[in-house]
Inverse folding.
């Protein structure tokens, strides 16, 4: 298994992963044109974040997105893990562990990261168990949002 930062040629896999993850975890069908543009925007500009992918036998088998949030309380960055997906045939092999280990190593190297966070669907107990096994814990915060007003 090889873990690395994603490159532009990984865009097709990342779009497919996001579509599959949204359908599998939330029953949502994502607009493919918007999703393609969103993935390509990240790949073209590190200020928007970066993707990390894992290859198994030369094929991209999983990936995730990292975005950044500035914490004035800590004078440092939180990195947010988002859009996590591992293809079904590669699950249970430690692929997410390798992805997150790679991200943690990058965060330590950056030197200005005070923590790594992620959000998970309330009913996705399988993912929650994985995150807990890797040392993450539920926070004291709830998440709120306003709907997308562009529509």
């Amino acid at each position: 298994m090889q873990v690395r930062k994603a490159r532009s040629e990984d865009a097709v896999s990342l779009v497919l992963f996001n579509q599959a993850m949204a359908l599998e975890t939330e029953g949502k069908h994502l607009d493919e044109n918007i999703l393609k543009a969103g993935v390509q925007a990240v790949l073209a500009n590190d200020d928007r974040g970066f993707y990390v992918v894992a290859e198994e036998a030369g094929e991209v088998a999983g990936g995730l997105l990292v975005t950044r949030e500035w914490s004035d309380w800590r004078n440092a960055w939180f990195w947010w893990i988002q859009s996590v997906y591992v293809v079904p045939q590669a699950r249970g092999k430690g692929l997410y562990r390798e992805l997150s280990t790679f991200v943690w190593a990058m965060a330590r190297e950056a030197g200005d990261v005070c923590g790594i966070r992620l959000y998970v669907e309330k009913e996705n107990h399988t993912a929650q168990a994985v995150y807990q096994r890797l040392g993450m814990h539920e926070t004291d915060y709830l998440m709120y949002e306003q709907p997308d007003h562009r529509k």
Q: What stands out?
A: The chain has one domain: 2-133. Residues 11-26 form the longest helix (16 residues). The CA atoms of residues 1 and 48 lie 26 Å apart. DSSP finds four helices and five strands in the chain.
